Amino acid sequence: MQNCTVDELNGKRQRGEDVLIVDVRTASELAIADLGGVCHIPLDEIAMRAEEIAAWKDKEVICMCHHGMRSARAQAILQHAGFTNVRNLTGGIHAWSTQIDPGVPQY
Q1: What are the catalytic residues?
Q2: Rounded to 5 degrees, what are φ and ψ at 21?
Q3: Residue 85 CB partners (closer than 8 Å, separation 6+)
Q4: pLDDT in tens, 77-92
Q5: Which of 16, 40, 86, 104 has the fewest Cβ atoms within 10 angstroms?
Q6: Which residue from 85, 95, 89, 90 is spatially nearest to 59, judged by alpha carbons?
Q7: Is the dihedral of CA 68, 71, 45, 9 positive or negative?
């Protein structure tokens, strides 16, 4: 399993790197705290909606959730679906809020 730290993701975003962030939290969680510019596919829909992001099968995809557990499951699902460069955001939106941007609400 490949992981991505929030520092690493922040650098990628600042440099404008081509990366797809898939937020697998629920819509109500996303409404509380959002990084912006993410693709929202809840974990319970990721297997059936993977084709929506098929253009990213060989590009970098970073899955994120609240703390990193659900996104690790999403990472495994996408890898099983043939995605070759899927990473898990360690610590999720909570780590982003505590380490990168305290303006992102914690919950």
Answers
A1: 65
A2: -100, 120
A3: 58, 59, 60, 61
A4: 999 999 999 999 999 9
A5: 16
A6: 85
A7: positive
